[in-house]
Amino acid sequence: MLKVENLHVYYGGIHALKGIHLSVEQGQIVTLIGANGAGKSTTLRTIVGLARPRSGSVTFLDEEITRLATHQIIMKGIGIAPEGRRVFPNLTVLENLELGAYNCSHKDFESGLEWVYTLFPRLQERHRQLAGTLSGGEQQMLALGRALMSKPALVLLDEPSLGLAPLIVEEVFQTIRTINQQGATVLLVEQNAMAALHVANYAYVLETGSVILEGPGQQLLQDERVRKAYLGE
């Protein structure tokens, strides 16, 4: 479904991605793990056109999308919930969700809204509330819901558990499983390596802009190097 090949990205003189290769098969949950500054978020930003590679390519559903504008990439069927949630605080919950469906027909909007409210009943309860007054966990639900409004084939999730209480983290990862079971393919960037590897079909370990290890999530959970470096064992 998604192929990233030999991707090199620079921020000024900083070589942020150094020949990244990865692929995401339809129906999978794939995760990228690694320390801060490893290049995880830059990879997602490049996939959706928010960062431009100096070389390499991104292919989605057999179409190269490397040079497309972000709004064109989103319309191809990719949704993103960015790091830090980035909800619009002065808009209501419903207005934030409407922005996630700007390219949808009325029928698709209604269908998407029903799906999001089924996943996150709290958003329906608070649909008139300003997003800035929601708790951190509720804002994360809203960011996820906004990304799902257009029913994307591929959902990119950037640090969805960051800064959340353990019970809310558990709820977020259960939701990730649910949306995957309901047909969405997921590419997940996550510092909580333990939780990410438990839900992932396949995983890539990034270090200073390069993939240093890859394999099935359950296999990497047992890998001595991963356990030592990222699981605190």
Would you mind describing this structure in some detail?
- With 233 residues, this protein is of the alpha/beta class.
- Helices cover 38% and strands 26% of the residues.
- The chain contains ten helices and ten strands.
- Strand 7, helix 7 and strand 8 (185-189) form a beta-alpha-beta unit.
- Helix 3 packs parallel to helix 6 (136-148).
- The longest helix is centred in the C-terminal third of the chain and has 16 residues, at 166-181.
- 41% of the residues are buried.
- The mean pLDDT is 91.
Fold blueprint:
Layout: E1 2-11, E2 14-24, E3 29-33, H1 40-47, E4 55-60, E5 63-64, H2 70-75, E6 78-81, H3 93-99, H4 106-119, H5 121-125, H6 136-148, E7 154-158, H7 166-181, E8 185-189, H8 193-199, E9 202-207, E10 210-216, H9 217-221, H10 224-230
Parallel strand pairs: 3-8, 3-9, 6-7, 7-8
Antiparallel strand pairs: 1-2, 1-4, 4-5, 9-10
Helix pairs in contact: 3-6
Sum this structure up briefly.
This protein has 233 residues and is an alpha/beta fold.
What are the main properties of this structure?
six-stranded mixed beta sheet; 10 strands; four-stranded antiparallel beta sheet; globular
